[in-house]
Amino acid sequence: MQQEKRVKYINPETMPPTFGYTHVVEVRNARTIYVSGQVALNQEGELVGAGDLAAQTKQVFENIQSALEAADVQFHDVVKLTFFMTDIAQMPVVREIRDQYINTANPPASSAVEIRKLIRDDLLIEIEAIAVGNL
C-alpha cells in the first residue's frame, strides 16, 4: 500500500494552528517500527558535539536514520517524534535540523518535553521515533 493511502495527516480546523508538526496521523494496514530514544553518541559510543545542541541534534537524526534503514523504512515513514531536551527554548535549533530529514509538507505528530537531565550530564537532547512500513 502506498504511503498516501496508508498514512493520513489531519489538522482539524477546530484545533490550534501547527508549526512543524501534525495534530493527528492516522495509519492503516502497516508495520509499526519503534525507534528507542537516540542520543548524540556515534558508532564508537563517543559523544558528538559536547555543549553544542546543533551538532548533537544532527548526530541524533543520523542515528535515527540508521535505525530506520535497518528496518527498511525512511524518514518519510516517520509518523511520530518525541523530543526530550534540557533547554526547550532551543527548539528552533532542533527544528532547523529536523526539517533537513522529515517531510515538511506532512510532518509527523510530535511532542517536545523539557527535562532536567538525560542519562548522561553531557547530553542535551534525546529523540524517539515511530515509523510505519509495508506489511
TrEMBL record:
It comes from the Bacteria. GO terms for cellular component: cytosol. Pfam families: Ribonuc_L-PSP (PF01042). SUPFAM superfamilies: YjgF-like. GO terms for molecular function: deaminase activity. Belongs to the RutC family. PANTHER family: 2-IMINOBUTANOATE/2-IMINOPROPANOATE DEAMINASE RIDA, PROTEIN HMF1-RELATED. This is Endoribonuclease L-PSP.
